[in-house]
Design goal:
The structure holds two protein chains of two kinds. Chain A is an alpha+beta fold. Chain A is built from three helices and five strands; from the N terminus they run ββαβααββ. Chain A has a five-stranded mixed beta sheet with strand order 2-1-5-3-4, with helices on one face. The N and C termini of chain B lie far apart (52 Å). Helices cover 23% and strands 29% of the residues of chain B. The model of chain B has no long low-confidence stretch (mean pLDDT 96). Classes of the chains: A alpha+beta, B alpha/beta.
Chain lengths: 106, 403
């Protein structure tokens, strides 16, 4: 199991223990985390599972891949720490990960 | 009575249940599905699941325990056979009658079937459900001959997986080009070339008149022509499942008719997903869509309205199709356009076609161009300077002009 914390736009926090190997999006969807829509089911098609990776975790999570970059490049909510949560796998290294949610998903 | 009944455990039905719990609905939720599976992702079936790139557990939308954990009473392999809107009850195919406070019809659609000579032979498949795809997968072996009836997205996605897996693939299309019902001649031509380059044989203006074989199909008949087949897959469109609604006296017209709140004309009965015929305020007309984004969004609207949050369904339709390593993403309907602008390079297989009406953006077809696809979603309906738009070096956002 691995820990992940979601922090909503209004500051509300939820910490979950989830199975390793899931994506951050899967963890959110299985636990009804508000603010992750995940319309396309994790195919990098829709950009509705956008999160901001906490600054402290940015080095470990790493930057966007090419597919994410293309689909997020015009997102008005985009920041340097933006990632699509379907593209982040929960590995050992990410135990304790903290992500923040944008006010709106596209 | 504090119970919500959802008929249909597809993507729309599953999302209604999840959204209700997300919005803190405290009553009982019953989710009925006639398939023997919890809600799963349908788009993968003809793509990454068929090619075995994704395993079966990846297809399911949520872990099995999700339904228990959130007190969603998931009843699979069970069908609702009757609705009594006056008594506010449904009756299952096992004869159980259950009362509801609100009822959601997420009954989806089913493949249009061919009823011609030999159409009940073994080896002829339709592709809609997980079980359909599992039986197709069992038949996909290199060297076997696969004939696909219908050159639409489903057929072509299957063609790309099958030919890549080493099958000998032929596509039969009645019209004079593939994808005629859904896209422009330019896009049809691009995909025609893509498939023939990979070794798929496409027969245009060819109608299937029957199937031949002993127990199993051995050839597909097209008038006087015979095309050898070890396996056949028919993909000629879907029909919305409206019979249950119709029998209950709910207005249906190419789908279950709803208002912009996804409500049917009867109190406390909603419809969402492929089965719904709904108004689209952005496009200014009624639509019935076969699309996951539509199913998901309508499900959220239904849940919000049940929770008295007064939500209107208003979204620009979008779609996607994966064929070979190429991703097609579409916004709107290209048939609404009267002018088109190509951006990018077709020969590099990375381009987008922007469709305009009175210089206003009405659709985008983007091949390996997710950025243009997102531009299309964000700038839908906006007015463009066509000359600027033709210059690919200018960013799409800088091509806007005053209305």
């Amino acid at each position: 199991m691995t820990k992940i914390t979601f922090i909503q736009h209004d500051g509300e926090q939820q910490t979950l223990e989830v199975e390793k190997g899931l994506s951050v999006m899967n963890a959110a969807v299985d636990n009804l985390i508000e603010g992750i829509d995940a319309d396309c089911g994790g195919e990098c098609n829709c950009a509705t599972c956008h999160v901001y990776v906490d600054d402290a975790w940015m080095d470990k999570v790493g930057p966007t891949n090419d597919a994410e970059e293309a689909i997020m490049s015009l997102n008005p909510e985009r920041k340097d720490t933006s990632r699509l949560s379907c593209q982040i796998k929960l590995t050992d290294e990410l135990d304790g990960l903290v992500v923040h949610l944008p006010e709106f998903q596209y | 009575m504090n119970r919500i009944i959802i008929v249909g455990a597809g993507q729309a039905g599953g999302q209604v249940a999840a959204s209700l719990r997300q919005q803190k609905y405290k009553g009982e939720i019953m989710l009925f599905g006639d398939e023997p599976h919890p809600p799963y992702q349908r788009p993968l079936l003809s793509k990454q699941y068929l090619s075995s790139e994704e395993a079966e557990d990846r297809v399911f939308l949520r872990a099995d325990k999700f339904y228990n954990d959130h007190s969603i009473n998931l009843r699979i392999s069970e069908k609702i056979s009757e609705i009594d809107p006056k008594l506010k009850t449904v009756t299952t195919d096992k004869g159980e009658t259950i009362e509801y406070q609100d009822l959601i019809l997420a009954t989806g659609s089913r493949p249009r079937k061919l009823k011609i000579t030999g159409s009940d032979l073994q080896g002829i498949h339709y592709l809609r459900t997980l079980d359909d795809v599992n039986s197709i997968k069992a038949e996909m072996q290199p060297g076997r001959k696969l004939v696909i009836v219908g050159g639409g997205y489903i057929g072509l996605e299957v063609a790309s997986v099958a030919v890549t897996a080493g099958m000998d693939v032929a596509v039969i299309e009645t019209e004079d080009r593939i994808l005629k019902r859904v896209t422009t001649p330019e896009m049809s031509e691009f995909y025609h070339q893509l498939h023939t380059d990979r070794g798929v044989t496409i027969h245009l203006q060819t109608s299937v008149s029957g199937f031949e074989g002993e127990d199993r199909v051995s050839s597909v008949l097209c008038g006087d022509n015979k095309i050898k087949a070890d396996v056949a897959i028919v993909g000629i469109g879907v029909i919305p499942n409206i019979e249950l609604a119709e029998a209950a006296g709910i207005e249906c017209n190419n789908g279950i008719v709803t208002n912009d709140h996804c409500q049917t004309e009867l109190d406390h009965i909603y419809a969402a997903g492929d089965c719904s015929n709904h108004p689209n305020p952005i496009l200014g007309r009624r639509l019935r869509l076969e699309s996951v984004p539509n199913a998901m969004e309508q499900a959220k609207v239904v849940a919000a309205n049940i929770m008295d949050k007064e939500k209107v369904y208003s979204a620009v339709p979008w779609f996607w199709s994966d064929q070979y390593e190429h991703k097609l993403q579409m916004v709107g309907f290209s048939s609404d356009g009267e002018k088109q602008v190509l951006r990018g390079d077709k020969s590099k297989k990375q381009f987008a076609i922007f469709y305009l009406r009175d210089d206003h953006l009405v659709a985008v077809d983007a091949v390996n161009s997710a950025r243009d696809f997102m531009a299309g979603r964000q700038l839908y309906g906006r007015k463009f300077d066509v000359v600027k738009l033709q210059d690919t070096a200018t960013d799409v956002k800088d091509c806007l002009t005053q209305d």
